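**Entry details**
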Amino acid sequence: MNRSLPWTGVLAALATALIGSGWQIASRHGVTTSLGPLELAVLRYAIPALVLLPVAWASGAVLRALPARQGALLVLGGGLPFGLVVMAGAQWAPAAHMGVFVAGSVPLFTALGGWWLDGERPARSRCVGLALMAAGLAVSGLGGLAATASAWRGDLLFLLAALLWSGYTLALRRSGLTAWQGAAAINIGSTVLLLPLLWFAGAPKLLSAPLRDVALQAVGQGLFAGLLGLALYGVAVARLGAARASLSGALVPLMTAVGAAWLLREPLTASTWLALALVLPGVALAGGAWTARTASLRSRTTGSPRPPRPG
């Protein structure tokens, strides 16, 4: 392990991938059984918001000083709009597609956003990774059309969710917030956005669903995804940078596909395996794995550390 990649950041990124995969499977299970997207959103954001109220109170001055544009990007990209888009897509497309499209395209959009905002032109290896990811997304989408007529709707929503999450990643890097401050801002802001939706539509399935389903989603959505997932991802971005933190997404498609096949009995088609074979190395290359590796080897050879190429 390169010394420039702290173990705390690496472990946080791995834990984030595991939690993200579990959240995708839990969301697919929830919207296809006894709960809807709005009910899951209540559990996903209201529970962490209550837990993090002391953090928001103690960091009030910091949060108030956050520019309105950055705060909006944090909440839009990592909060309620992102969650509702993913959960709505999970009603039409299987969990394996969620893993491929969301985790597989976040590094693509993050790299393009960094190029546009900061002038971080991707290296050749990252361009190869982006091309592999695009090919994997195309294979998964075409396979979904052949298997399920409505899967394309979910796939498009997953792409929109990945675009939102990429904006959140770039905004978090620029905000200067700690991991817990960012989690508090996102969950409390999302809960505020939830209030008018609940006023007009309500969340009736929370009262009619089996208590076991509600408790399972409260733990998976609220405690793990809403609280620990956001905080750990903030640690990974702070310690590794946005591009390397998004590299953990290489594990999510495989874990989601295998987990959904095991827990939800969703079939693993040939197109899914082919998409995974393209997306997994694509995410790794797009995240800068090859660039970081060659920089490490170069520094060992010369005896003096050299920074990797931008991007």
Notes: The two ends are 19 Å apart (CA to CA).
